[in-house]
C-alpha cells in the first residue's frame, strides 16, 4: 500500500498547511477542492516541484452533493490505488442561534461537516480497508453555546461518529479526531482579531497551525491510538479561569 493521503478542503488555510506538512513527511497527497481550483493547481505544482519523487494530484467534488461525495473515494482508488490516510478537514462555519436556523442553514452545515465525512469514512473502510482517518471537529463541542447551533451540532455528531467508527473499523483502521480552537483568523479578519479572541482562553495566545500539525503526527505515529480526541486549542475546552 502506498503512503498516500486524501485531504478534503486541501487548497487553502488549515487544509493547505496539512497538505504541505504531509508532503514534507514523504506522503503523496490527493488535494481535494470544490471551487478553489486555481489555489489547488498552484499547490499541486509547488509540491511537485519541491518533492519530485512524490506524487500529487487534485480532485474536485462538491461535498454538498452526496452523488459527488460517493464518487470521490472510488475515483481516488482507481487513480492512485488503495490509499491509507483520509483527513476530513473541509467544513463550513456559519453563525445562527437555534431560533434563527433555517432548514437551508441546517442542511449546509450538516451536509458538509457531518454527512460528507460519514460517507467518505464508510467508503474508505469499504475500498481501502486499512489505514487512518483523522476528523476535524471543534473545541465548541464541549459547550452548549448555540450561537453557531447547526455548526456545533454537526461537529458534535462528527465526534460521536469518530468513536463509533473507531470501534467498528478496528483493528485495521484507526479513527481519531482533532479539535482546533483559536488557530487562524477568518479570511476577512486580522491577526489582531485573533489575539482578541485568545484573551479568553487559558494559554492567552492563538495556536496557529503548528499544534494541529503536531497532533496529526502524534496520531499517525501512535499505532495504539483510536477513538480519541486531541484538543489543539490552548485549553479553550476547559472553560475560563474566573
Automatic annotation (TrEMBL):
Keywords for the protein's UniProt record, in alphabetical order: Oxidoreductase
InterPro entries hit by this protein: NAD(P)-bd_dom_sf, SDR_fam
A GO term for molecular function: oxidoreductase activity
Family statement: Belongs to the short-chain dehydrogenases/reductases (SDR) family.
Protein name: SDR family NAD(P)-dependent oxidoreductase
Amino acid at each position: 500500500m502506498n503512503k498516500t493521503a486524501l485531504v478534503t478542503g486541501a487548497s487553502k488555510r488549515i487544509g493547505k498547511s496539512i497538505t504541505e506538512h504531509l508532503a514534507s513527511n514523504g506522503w503523496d497527497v490527493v488535494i481535494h477542492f470544490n471551487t478553489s481550483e486555481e489555489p489547488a493547481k498552484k499547490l499541486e505544482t509547488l509540491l511537485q516541484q519541491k518533492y519530485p519523487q512524490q506524487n500529487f494530484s487534485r480532485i474536485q467534488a462538491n461535498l454538498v452533493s452526496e452523488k459527488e461525495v460517493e464518487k470521490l473515494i472510488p475515483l481516488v482508488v482507481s487513480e492512485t490505488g488503495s490509499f491509507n490516510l483520509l483527513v476530513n478537514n473541509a467544513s463550513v462555519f456559519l453563525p445562527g442561534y437555534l431560533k434563527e436556523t433555517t432548514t437551508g442553514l441546517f442542511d449546509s452545515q450538516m451536509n458538509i461537516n457531518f454527512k460528507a465525512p460519514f460517507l467518505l469514512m464508510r467508503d474508505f473502510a469499504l475500498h481501502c480497508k486499512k489505514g487512518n482517518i483523522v476528523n476535524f471537529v471543534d473545541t465548541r463541542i464541549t459547550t452548549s453555546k448555540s450561537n453557531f447551533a447547526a455548526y456545533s451540532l454537526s461537529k458534535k455528531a462528527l465526534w460521536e461518529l469518530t468513536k463509533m467508527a473507531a470501534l467498528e473499523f478496528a483493528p485495521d483502521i484507526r479513527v481519531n479526531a482533532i479539535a482546533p480552537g483559536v488557530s487562524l483568523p477568518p479570511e476577512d479578519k486580522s491577526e489582531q482579531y485573533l489575539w482578541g479572541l485568545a484573551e479568553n482562553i487559558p494559554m492567552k495566545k492563538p495556536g496557529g497551525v503548528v499544534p494541529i500539525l503536531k497532533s496529526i503526527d502524534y496520531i499517525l505515529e501512535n499505532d495504539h491510538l483510536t477513538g480519541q480526541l486531541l484538543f489543539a486549542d490552548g485549553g479553550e475546552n476547559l472553560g475560563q479561569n474566573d
